Amino acid sequence: MIQNKRVTKAVIPAAGLGTRFLPATKAMPKEMLPVVDQPAIQYVVQEAAKAGLDDILMITGRNKRALEDHFDRVPTLEATLEAKGDLEKLQRIQEATDIGDMHYIRQGDPKGLGHAVLCAKRHVGNEPFAVLLGDDLIDARDVLLETMIDVQAKTGGSVIAVMEVDPQQISAYGCADVTAIEGEDYVAVRALVEKPNVEEAPSNLAVIGRYVLSPAVFEVLERTAPGRGGEIQLTDALQELATMEGPGGGVHAVVFRGRRYDTGDKLSYIQAVITLAAEREDLGPDLVPWLKEFVSGL
Fold this sequence. Notes:
Elements (H helix, E strand, L loop, with lengths): L8 E5 L20 E2 L2 E2 H11 L4 E6 L4 H6 L4 H10 L2 H11 L3 E6 L6 H6 L2 H4 L4 E4 L3 E3 L6 H11 L2 E7 L9 E7 L6 E8 L10 E9 L2 H7 L11 H9 L8 E5 L4 E3 L3 H13 L5 H13 L2
Helix pairs in contact: 3-4, 8-9
């Protein structure tokens, strides 16, 4: 029986090979690539914790041990920093170890995002849960996950995040066909289309890497056949849930209009590092003038 409880668990798929960043990711998980001075994955975990999700399951794979090590304590390092009186650095590394209750499970075979989510079934149980993809960083000053959790509590189904993109770019994303709901600031999802042709796209609303899912998704994923690329697609399961009636059925979407950084693409990753560094008080005052001077000389 599906229980409509408040969301407390987050699932973070992190088993990808990161081939777009080779050779940097040959021996280092792509999630550990630094964004200014902390790994990309830490921003994602901090976002989950900020939304009140203190039970975090990371779906990992081979060569991902560095993820577990990062969120674990290193007593000798902490003692060294404390002895040196470097309390600021000590606090920074302790932020990662005190962030929440961390759990890890290996995906094994890389069978797609849908399979990664299915790996979380035993841990999640019969309650709604959040899925956060590590490639998408949501600016900490913008609210998204909290809003999605509220919508899920109100509707009882699943909730996705979408963002308006240039219509000519929609073929690079999953696309949502939606219907407005009078009096609400979220929309109902009628259908999801994975990477449609520009001419056939039902909207310019691209699905981004945040989901709050009903546990009904597990039963659907178990019978979902491999789709694009021979992988079990989460989009296919959400498509079925969107038309399903009864407990756990229905999919809604929150349209995000804040700041999002795509660290899964080389150019966007560089832009994310520059943007976040330029906005920091300790780096921005020196970085921004240098950037202006550098660009003017090109």
